[in-house]
DHA2 family efflux MFS transporter permease subunit (Agrobacterium albertimagni), 498 residues
Amino acid sequence: MHSKTPAAATISADASQPYPKRWTALAVMMLANFMNLLDVTIVNVALPSLQSELGATSSQIEWVVAGYVLVFALGLLPFGRLGDVRGKKQVFLVGVAAFTFASLLCGLAPDIGWLVVARLLQGAGAAVMTPQVLAIAQMMFPPKERAAAFSLFGLSAGLASVSGPILGGWLISLDVLGLGWRPIFLINIPVGIVTILLGWRLIPALAPKPGLKNDFGGIILAALAIFCVVFPLIEGRGFGWPAWCFVMLAMAVPFAIAFGLWERRQHRMKAPELLPVALMKNRNYVIGSLMTATFFSTLPGFFLIFAMFLQQGYGLTPLQSGMTTVPFSVGIFIASLISGRLGSIAPRIRVIVGVVMVIIGMGLLRMEIQSVGDSIDRMALLPWFLMSGLGMGIAIAPMFQLVLAGVPPQDAGGGSGALQAIQQVGSALGIAIVSEIFFSDLARNAAAGMSGQEVYAEGLSLGLIYNFVAYAIVLIAVASMRTVTPGSEKLERPLPIE
């Protein structure tokens, strides 16, 4: 005898009545989303501790962060489609389970190799569960409630960015049972178990679409192109930049070209496309995607080397290090709260204003870092972190709006998903580039017999130069984008790309 439980609740796209448990189901999914977002920010403050305990090299430390982001980026689109094929609820729960199990492996890691592999698995789990969250929410809520529901995701992201460094530093400082940095991963286990149990009962089942297929050829070619760039950038320094590093970097170009040709072939054959050809022909989308990748490439690498600067250079504890960067997260959080009131201002203007604020804030932060001596005044950094965070928060929402404004409605889903993946790829590349600058400078100074805080300050200052170049590219990209006519997906001037 079988009884119908809440786990069997179903909804469909044409349901006339909204799902009655939609708000509690949303809370469960946001818990999983918060766990993923928290994991991105919580790790940075632990990097010096785990490097010391596990005897990791600088490139291995980079893989702890970049590997997670890279796998997450590559998995967003194919796993998003998998949710359509196999059922979004089932795939979401599998993703949460995989993320939770990988977190356990991270917490038990006996060496750095184990930890890197576990982080790759954790990134894959995050890529499985994350695309399902917005898709399920879209189906659960009627149009009039979606704005309120989706605004909670922005609030969740803001809370995760604020609490991550504090929670990470606090857990490490507690040194629970002598575990040191390991609780930052182990804390995910009870959260994941609760999410799975509640999700099974509360999240509605959505009818799968087994006729859909993934573009596996596109996935492989895109992964090869990205790997050929990221791997030599991270590992090249450790191997002394042999010829194969440059060969790999060069190979990224033919793989990228092959990807474009493959997608055109898929389009002609009316087969699944990882990145729709229509988007690749959309000038605004192409420029905007490169702009977004460049913009989001600046922060992950910066916070990685900043944690090294504070903890290894000045001997700060993980908690002190995390507290130092909190004003930046607070700035983003404040900006997300006031973003609705800025809606009347053109997206292009908001992006420019936000980026300029970040440039000024980071510039003054760099000047402050260059002036430090044997000790550092963390309070002196507070206003510049806050200003940079406000600028970042002001720019993010209109940037996505600007990029997607000219995308036809039929390509909106694919365009949004691809843009998020491109954003994560930019983060991985930024980690590789900024870390290469920082650690290469440390190694060069160590070889010259130099040591002390000024060596870390110099490396951090050099790493920040990449950020300023990236922000300049973003401003140029914004200026080069065409203006979209309100209420239309057509551009005011014809696009030269066909």
